[in-house]
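Inverse folding, one chain.
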């Protein structure tokens, strides 16, 4: 292991939802070829690594999170050779690669699950998953009352009478992590990709692998929970950490771990466990100084207790884009697995102003940060997708009451004034897999490049300052005394971030230079919903 500070403690990691990033072959679907062609853009943006959503072979019942083969690339995206070339090209650009890994479940088309179905009740192949007989005289009732995160029961019955567990859609059967084959398989998968040069993994549903072997009914507020955040998961990750440590270059794991309390999250990032965990309290917070400060304080206190860095994030592929969340006067707290149905139409001018300020807040906080593709363009949620084009299984399983996540997954615009806005190569006849709004030309990379007032140039400048300024990235912070609706903190040496969440202008503290501001500052007054970095 390296003796210098590991890169991941301060990294800015760019999330690539590969299907919607760049289409290299003209079929309307993003792919590895498209991503490779945009590496110069990502290098110029200033990111340290790419987190790539699943690119493995998959029937795509849930956007690739239903994996049929963890050692193969889905033909939709390219080949294993393409992935290996991408890793090499990215490293040449100084960018690290962090794929997703999905250990809680597989696709129902995975060879193991097909073997389990063929084996029949009692067959040893079924032990790699969680099959059980049903309840009731004829076994017609599910084994317990657990429900799927995407709506409906968490159990599906197969023709021979057994039921299998799926905490997500039926196409994603849960693995049985009490079985040694499962442990051995994922340890092998980690080595397969580490040997090909990946720099780490983002772990999907990191809190969900272990289940109570008794499979009891779920009671309200049950502790410990029978299938979320059980202590057994940490032994798995201690083994994974040892594997990562065998490889050079500070390989890293980032956990998607949902927990009820900060101390439960801290358990995932102890020195012998995973390296980082997503900060969902910050992402879920409303646009309110008190709420944001509490999320920041709680996260830093929890993580410092185990020596782990924070990782801040504003949007991802599972939530409404923050430009649209912030575009309502009264921003709701986002709650996982609950439809985010904001009040009233979006005021995108307001949302964009707040999103610019939020970017400066996030990038000034101690630790690392994640940027979801299109955040740097200020893309809003596409809230008016026609029902006929929606593909997220959440939409169907909620009987069309939850719009799902398609609105944050619309392919991003690169250039031009008409769709596909450079997403696909010139001359391509296939439309993007989700339709882009007709006015997105003004939000494209081409349109924003060189415009000092654009979101893209704000991000580029902020990331350059992070690289050049020792005060930013990993470290500590000190709050400054301010009115209740103002967030202001000091980063040593000599940097102050101020965010105005009030409805009045705020006079800036003494400083020598304004390094970066999200909007105009006149006569030393910071406007509402604006942020600034100061040198003092």
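Residues assigned per position:
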């Amino acid at each position: 292991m390296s003796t210098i500070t590991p890169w991941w403690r301060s990294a800015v990691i760019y999330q690539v939802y590969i299907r919607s990033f760049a289409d290299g072959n003209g079929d309307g679907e993003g792919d590895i070829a498209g991503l490779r062609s945009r590496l110069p853009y990502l290098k110029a943006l200033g990111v340290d690594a790419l987190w790539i959503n699943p690119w493995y072979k998959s029937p795509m019942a849930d956007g690739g999170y239903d994996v049929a083969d963890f050692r193969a690339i889905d033909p939709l995206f390219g080949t294993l050779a393409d992935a290996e070339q991408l890793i090499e090209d990215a490293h040449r650009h100084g960018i690290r690669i962090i794929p997703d890994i999905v250990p809680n479940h597989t696709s129902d088309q995975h060879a193991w699950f097909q073997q389990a179905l063929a084996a029949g009740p009692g067959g040893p192949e079924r032990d790699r998953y969680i099959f059980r007989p049903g309840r009731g005289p004829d076994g017609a009732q599910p084994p317990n009352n657990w429900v799927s995160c995407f709506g409906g029961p968490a159990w599906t019955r197969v023709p021979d009478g057994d039921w299998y567990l799926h905490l997500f859609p039926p196409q994603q059967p849960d693995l049985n992590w009490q079985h040694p084959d499962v442990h051995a398989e994922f340890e092998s998968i980690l080595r397969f990709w580490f040997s090909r040069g990946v720099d780490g993994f983002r772990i999907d549903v990191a809190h969900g692998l272990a289940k109570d072997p008794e499979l009891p009914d779920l009671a309200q507020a049950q502790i410990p929970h029978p299938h979320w955040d059980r202590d057994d998961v940490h032994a798995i990750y201690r083994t994974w950490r040892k594997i990562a440590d065998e490889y050079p270059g500070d390989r890293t794991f980032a956990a998607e771990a949902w927990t009820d309390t900060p101390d439960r999250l801290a358990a995932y990032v102890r020195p012998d466990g995973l390296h980082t965990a997503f900060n969902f309290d910050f992402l879920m917070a409303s646009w309110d100084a008190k709420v944001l400060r509490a999320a920041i304080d709680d996260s830093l206190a929890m993580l410092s207790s185990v020596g782990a860095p924070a990782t801040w994030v504003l949007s991802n592929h599972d939530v409404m884009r923050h430009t649209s969340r912030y575009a309502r006067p009264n921003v709701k707290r986002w709650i996982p697995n609950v439809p985010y149905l904001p009040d009233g139409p979006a005021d995108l001018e307001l949302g964009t102003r707040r999103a610019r300020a939020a970017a400066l807040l996030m990038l000034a906080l101690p630790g690392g940060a994640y940027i979801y593709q299109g955040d740097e363009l200020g893309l809003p949620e596409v809230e008016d997708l026609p029902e006929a084009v929606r593909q997220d299984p959440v939409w169907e399983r909620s009987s069309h009451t939850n719009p799902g996540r398609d609105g944050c997954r619309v392919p991003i615009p690169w250039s031009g004034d008409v769709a596909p806005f450079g997403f696909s190569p010139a001359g391509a006849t296939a439309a993007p897999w989700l339709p882009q709004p007709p006015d997105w030309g003004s939000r494209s990379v081409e349109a924003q490049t060189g415009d000092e007032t654009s979101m893209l140039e704000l991000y580029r400048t902020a990331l350059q300052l992070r690289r050049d300024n020792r005060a930013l990235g990993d470290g500590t912070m000190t709050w400054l005394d301010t009115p209740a609706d103002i967030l202001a903190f000091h980063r040593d040496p000599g940097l102050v971030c101020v965010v105005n969440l009030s409805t009045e202008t705020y006079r800036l503290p003494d400083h020598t230079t304004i390094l970066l501001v999200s909007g105009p500052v006149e006569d030393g007054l910071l406007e509402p919903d604006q942020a600034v970095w100061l040198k003092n």
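The mean pLDDT is 95. The first strand starts at residue 12 and ends at 16.
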